[in-house]
């Protein structure tokens, strides 16, 4: 399994609104397509106004196919256009993480 690790930094005061929208609309769409939701975490100490979202995939090809299908979904297109209209996200960093040979996900 590989892990997609997404870090989002938000405009101060906008994280809670984004979380509510994501929980009520976006997460279900992504679960339908991306399948292995590993978690969503919110910073408490350190770089504030930051979330980390993680998804697991069998391979890069699996990730690519699943995300491509999601991008074609009209529900996703509506959701993501509404998210961008919130003007809440200030930056986004995406890493693909491979497990160490002794990791349970290897």
TrEMBL record:
Pfam families: NIPSNAP (PF07978). Residues 4-104 form the NIPSNAP domain. SUPFAM superfamilies: Dimeric alpha+beta barrel. It comes from the Bacteria. InterPro entries: Dimeric_a/b-barrel, NIPSNAP, NipSnap_domain. Transmembrane segments: none annotated. PANTHER family: NIPSNAP-RELATED, PROTEIN NIPSNAP. Belongs to the NipSnap family. This is NIPSNAP family protein. The lineage of its organism: Bacteria, Pseudomonadati, Pseudomonadota, Alphaproteobacteria, Hyphomicrobiales.
């Amino acid at each position: 399994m590989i892990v997609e690790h997404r870090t989002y930094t938000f405009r101060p005061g906008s994280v809670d609104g984004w979380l509510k929208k994501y929980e009520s609309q976006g997460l279900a769409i992504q679960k339908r397509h991306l399948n292995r939701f590993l978690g969503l975490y919110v910073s408490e100490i350190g770089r504030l106004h930051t979330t980390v979202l993680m998804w697991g995939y069998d391979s890069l090809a699996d990730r690519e196919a699943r995300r491509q299908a999601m991008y074609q979904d009209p529900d996703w297109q509506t959701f993501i256009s509404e998210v961008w209209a919130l003007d809440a996200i200030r930056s986004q960093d995406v890493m693909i993480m491979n497990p160490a040979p002794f990791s349970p996900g290897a």
